[in-house]
Amino acid sequence: MNRHLISAGDLAKDDALLILDTAEELARVSERSIKKLPTLRGRTVVNLFFEDSTRTRISFEAAAKRLSADVINFSAKGSSVSKGESLKDTALTLEAMGADAVVIRHGASGAPHRLATWVRGSVVNAGDGTHEHPTQALLDAFSMRRRLGGLDGRRITIVGDVLHSRVARSNVLLLATLGAEVTLVAPPTLLPVAVGTWPCEVSYDLDAVLPKSDAVMMLRVQKERMNAAYFPSEREYSRRYGLDRDRFAKMPDDAIVMHPGPMNRGMEIAAEVADSPRSTIVEQVANGVTIRMAVLYLLLGGETVA
């Protein structure tokens, strides 16, 4: 594996499978009464979050602590960053503290890539702007593999606000690497200009795609990133691109429903669909800790999992 995890596109198939297989081993450890391993004892992991996050930050913190690493949580609010300190100066401070790994979430696309040029430790991208979120794609792939058996040849449909979704881009790149066939479904206004270069198909008709899908991932409509009217109304969006009970019935009986969270219940996904036995939404949160343990373990060269 590379020293950093910045893009899902950086992972070769063997790298991605190594992470998924390592996570499978670590999941068995997580089922024990004592979940802690000594593998990263003496290592320091810094969570450097310039954007608000609940699930991702706590997930990385739990993952590092279960591997016995020391964890420093750094929030931009109330720190020198709020006083105007640059990302480079923050990086040099972390370097002086001897951080072995820096997990960064930043509002600017490309920030983790710049950070990787300034620190000697490993950099893990926990979401940068509208660019990528590779560990989310890994936990999604892990969740799919556990439910569907394998990903090679599986048909995965990703629906919704692709334009503002770093999750969608990372999932398309990773799933294509793992041999899945990905279809994006969205209004034309919510697709990136360069989507034609992505390794996937594009459709505007959700009803036509659902019966052929092994997994359907609904994306949150990111209203906080929208500075214009991308669709006529929330009701109209939900009517055309929301996963309600009737659309859910069109999916194959063994197909699963996913969502990276947080959800807009009743808009992109109906509550009864989100809470159905075929939904993996709660599993995705639990699998996030396991996948992030695997990533930190492999990047920091932990001892053998036992």
Automatic annotation (TrEMBL):
Signal peptide: none annotated. Its EC number is 2.1.3.2. Keywords: Pyrimidine biosynthesis, Transferase. Residues 153-299 form the Aspartate/ornithine carbamoyltransferase Asp/Orn-binding domain. It catalyses: carbamoyl phosphate + L-aspartate = N-carbamoyl-L-aspartate + phosphate + H(+). Carbamoyl phosphate binds at R55, T56, R105, H133, Q136, G261, P262. Coiled coil: none annotated. Residues 3-145 form the Aspartate/ornithine carbamoyltransferase carbamoyl-P binding domain. InterPro entries: Asp/Orn_carbamoyltranf_P-bd, Asp/Orn_carbamoylTrfase, Asp/Orn_carbamoylTrfase_sf, Asp_carbamoyltransf, Asp_carbamoyltransf_Asp/Orn-bd. It is an enzyme of class 2 (transferase). L-aspartate binds at K83, R166, R220. GO terms for molecular function: aspartate carbamoyltransferase activity. Pathway: Pyrimidine metabolism; UMP biosynthesis via de novo pathway; (S)-dihydroorotate from bicarbonate: step 2/3. Catalyzes the condensation of carbamoyl phosphate and aspartate to form carbamoyl aspartate and inorganic phosphate, the committed step in the de novo pyrimidine nucleotide biosynthesis pathway. Heterododecamer (2C3:3R2) of six catalytic PyrB chains organized as two trimers (C3), and six regulatory PyrI chains organized as three dimers (R2). Belongs to the aspartate/ornithine carbamoyltransferase superfamily. ATCase family. HAMAP family: Asp_carb_tr (MF_00001). This is Aspartate carbamoyltransferase. The gene is pyrB.
